[in-house]
């Protein structure tokens, strides 16, 4: 049997899309603020330009850019894009992990549980209640997602299969899929790190060159040096916001853990050990575990 994201509950799909949307909104707001700051610095570094009424063109452009930074920042704060992105991502991954554990008899939904469906719903609601306390907006409250449907037909079918079928499906469609995802994200982060690192080095070297020339009374002047410094600072800030370097280390470690767990699951794990092994694997791929590794890798 093949078990994909499409087989997960509707609540997962809604929270997953909400997380993607809020992440995009948060990222775009940060990018816009940094670009506007660089634009403001560039406008301030240019000559006054033509006069528009009582103001000069590039001075006005600089003022408008700074105002834009404030407006974008206030809008992002009011909409709580970043907190809602993180809360929705936590909710989506929690639902996904719990659904997988239920479907393949992972702890605490092992074969010995008398009423796994009731246990699943209790655990699900308890976890989501904690997220609601932190400000997560439950789509079921507004009717965006109907009540019920926490356990899909595909989840029930997979749970009803024998141990070998469940193990094969979990290793192929969950463990290997997640390992490959972390590998792809590591490569993306590595390319982005190289790009931004060299960009920052180039901007800094140019600023250094112009500052050195300025110390001898030549060169393009301090305005261009200040602009290059602002651009380099924006690049550093963007690189830090995206957390490319710590995520490379975190994702690499998780990929290694999953590769080791895959070997163990395919060779030495017995049916009695299976529930705890699934639980441990799901712990590896939780956002909290990734965030912990990223913080301690930075």
Overall helicity? over 70%
- Give me the side-by-side strand order of the main sheet: 1-2
**C-alpha geometry:** elongated
Rounded to the nearest angstrom, the radius of gyration is 25 Å
**Unreliable sequence segments:** none
- Give the percentage of residues in beta strands: under 5%
> What class would the helix/strand composition place it in?
mainly alpha
Helix/strand order = HEEHHHHHHHHHH
Main beta-sheet strand count, sense and barrel state: 2 strands, antiparallel
**pLDDT averaged residue by residue:** 92
Tally of individual helices:
11
* Number of DSSP E strands: 2
Distance between the termini: 40 Å
How many discrete structural domains? 2
Describe this structure as you would to a colleague:
Strands 1-2 form a two-stranded antiparallel sheet. Helix 1 packs antiparallel against helix 8. The chain has two domains: 161 residues, no CATH class; 137 residues, no CATH class. Helices cover 78% and strands 1% of the residues. It has 298 residues and is mainly alpha-helical.
């Amino acid at each position: 049997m093949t078990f994909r994201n499409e087989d997960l509950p509707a609540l997962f799909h809604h929270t997953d899309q909400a997380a993607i949307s809020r992440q995009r909104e948060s990222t775009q707001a940060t990018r816009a603020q940094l670009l506007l700051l660089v634009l403001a610095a560039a406008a301030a570094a240019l000559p006054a330009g033509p006069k528009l009424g009582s103001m000069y063109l590039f001075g006005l452009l600089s003022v408008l850019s700074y105002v834009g930074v404030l407006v974008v920042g206030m809008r992002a704060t009011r909409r709580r894009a970043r907190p809602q992105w993180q809360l929705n991502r936590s909710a989506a991954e929690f639902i996904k992990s719990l659904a997988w554990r239920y479907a393949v008899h992972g702890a605490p939904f092992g074969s010995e549980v008398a009423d796994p469906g009731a246990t699943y719903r209790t655990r699900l609601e308890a976890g989501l209640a904690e997220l609601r306390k932190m400000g997560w907006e439950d789509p079921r409250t507004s009717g965006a997602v109907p009540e019920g449907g926490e356990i899909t037909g595909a989840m029930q079918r997979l749970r009803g299969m024998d141990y070998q079928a469940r193990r094969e499906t979990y290793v192929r469609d969950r463990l290997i899929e997640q390992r490959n995802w972390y590998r792809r994200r590591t490569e993306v982060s590595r390319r982005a790190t190289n790009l931004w690192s060299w960009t920052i080095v180039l901007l800094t070297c140019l600023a250094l060159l112009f500052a050195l020339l300025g110390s001898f009374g030549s060169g393009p002047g301090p305005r261009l040096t200040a602009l290059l410094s602002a651009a380099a600072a924006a690049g550093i800030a963007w690189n830090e916001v995206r957390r490319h370097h710590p995520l490379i280390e975190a994702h690499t470690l998780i990929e290694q853990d999953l590769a080791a767990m895959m070997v163990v699951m395919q060779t030495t794990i017995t049916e009695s050990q299976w529930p705890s092994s699934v639980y441990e694997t799901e712990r590896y791929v939780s956002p909290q575990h990734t965030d912990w590794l990223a913080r301690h890798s930075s």
